[in-house]
């Protein structure tokens, strides 16, 4: 089939939407489909559309539905769709949801925010990650890795705030990887580095450098205020790197309600306590490792490709389209 995959992220971006689009395009091509990835749809030939982001891709979704009402249309709900735009821009977001023949969520609690009348066309696909490099955690320091763009939804400096006033004998250091979305974020990160000797912002880095950072780290912290099912969780789990996360739907839906490494959103003191506990309590750190290792099958690339194959087959069946 000719599949048109829409993502609002530019190709130079290393954020979640582009990462997902690039990986899915590769997997779908591996299944024998012809896949084109663009930011917008302008009437190009396509038998099926998969659009990431109900709100940001709304114009492309509407155009495809209007020009090809009988052709299968899949809409993937991102974190900002589910936890921001359904409330701040409900008309456009709901219109995309209504037009979709199948909705895709990326974590197991996404159904709780989808309108009841549309939950019957919702399915969950967990995002996979390649096997990480062999772990060789730093010996001198207890390295805490944070990977995400510097913007409000990510709360990226929270781990830096959490290590400002640690006991003198703590070895915790925080490494933040990700580009700043504005000059103000650049200024904040640079000012924090100047004042906080335990924190270093590395800026945007290629994936291979991030993989090396995972291999040298002791923890990944995901401090986000909202996520739709973060790629970085799977990447850390597959790299055998334990995770500490803010307690948000998108992370609970991946790690599980009883995961031991949650802290309340934006709670600096609670995060500081978790980091110190992970550094000093061998049993607690082992619990984090065990819980993450149990989740590894969820992030298997072969499993994700099978789910994509089922997605294409099922949406074609719903619309009476021949594969």
Structure description:
- This protein has 323 residues and is α/β, with parallel strands linked by helices.
- The protein is built from twelve helices and twelve strands.
- It folds into two domains: 147 residues, Rossmann fold, CATH 3.40.50.2000; 158 residues, 3-Layer(aba) Sandwich (Rossmann fold).
- Helices cover 41% and strands 16% of the residues.
- The strands form two sheets. A six-stranded parallel β-sheet has the order 2-1-3-4-5-6, sandwiched between helices.
- Helix 3 packs across helix 4 and helix 10 packs across helix 11.
The low-pLDDT segments are: none
* Cα radius of gyration in angstroms: 20 Å
> What general outline do the C-alpha atoms trace?
elongated
> In total, how many domains does the architecture comprise?
2
Number of strands: 12
Short description:
The protein is an alpha/beta fold and 323 residues long.
Write out key terms for the chains shown.
323 residues; alpha/beta; Rossmann fold; 2 domains; 6-stranded parallel β-sheet; 12 helices; 41% helix
Which secondary structure elements does this structure contain, and how are they paired or packed?
Elements: E1 2-6, H1 16-30, E2 34-38, E3 48-52, H2 58-67, E4 73-76, H3 79-88, H4 90-99, E5 102-105, E6 122-124, E7 142-147, H5 158-162, E8 172-177, H6 183-195, E9 199-203, H7 207-216, E10 219-222, H8 231-238, E11 243-246, H9 249-255, E12 262-263, H10 268-280, H11 282-294, H12 301-319
Parallel strand pairs: 1-2, 1-3, 3-4, 4-5, 5-6, 7-8, 7-10, 8-9, 10-11, 11-12
Helix pairs in contact: 2-4, 3-4, 10-11
């Amino acid at each position: 089939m000719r599949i048109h995959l829409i993502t609002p992220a530019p190709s130079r971006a290393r954020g979640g939407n582009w990462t997902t689009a690039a990986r899915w395009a590769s997997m779908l091509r591996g299944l024998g489909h012809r896949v084109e990835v663009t930011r917008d749809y302008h009437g190009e030939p396509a038998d099926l559309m998969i659009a990431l982001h109900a709100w940001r891709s709304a114009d492309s979704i509407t155009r495809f539905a209007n020009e090809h009402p009988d052709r299968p249309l899949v809409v993937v709900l991102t974190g900002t769709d589910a936890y921001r735009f359904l409330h701040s821009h409900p008309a456009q977001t709901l219109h995309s949801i209504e037009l979709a023949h199948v909705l895709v969520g990326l974590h197991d609690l996404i159904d709780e925010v989808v309108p009841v009348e549309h939950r019957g066309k919702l399915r969950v696909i967990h995002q996979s990650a390649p096997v990480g490099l062999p772990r060789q955690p730093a010996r001198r320091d207890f390295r805490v890795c944070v990977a995400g763009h510097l913007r409000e939804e990510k709360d990226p400096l929270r781990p830096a705030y959490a290590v400002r006033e640690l006991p003198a004998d703590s070895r915790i250091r925080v490494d933040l990887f990700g580009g700043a979305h504005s000059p103000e974020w650049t200024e904040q990160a640079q000012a924090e580095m100047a004042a906080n000797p335990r924190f270093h912002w590395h800026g945007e880095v290629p994936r291979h450098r991030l993989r090396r950072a995972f291999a040298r780290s002791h923890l990944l912290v995901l401090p986000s205020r909202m996520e739709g099912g973060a790629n970085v969780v799977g990447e850390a789990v597959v790299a055998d790197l334990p995770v500490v996360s803010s307690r948000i739907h998108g992370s609970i839906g991946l790690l599980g309600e009883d995961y031991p490494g949650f802290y309340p959103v934006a709670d600096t003191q609670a995060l500081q306590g978790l980091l110190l506990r992970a550094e000093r309590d061998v049993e607690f750190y082992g619990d984090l490792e065990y819980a993450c290792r149990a989740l590894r099958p969820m992030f298997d690339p072969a499993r994700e490709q099978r789910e994509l194959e089922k997605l294409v087959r099922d949406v074609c069946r719903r619309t009476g389209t021949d594969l």
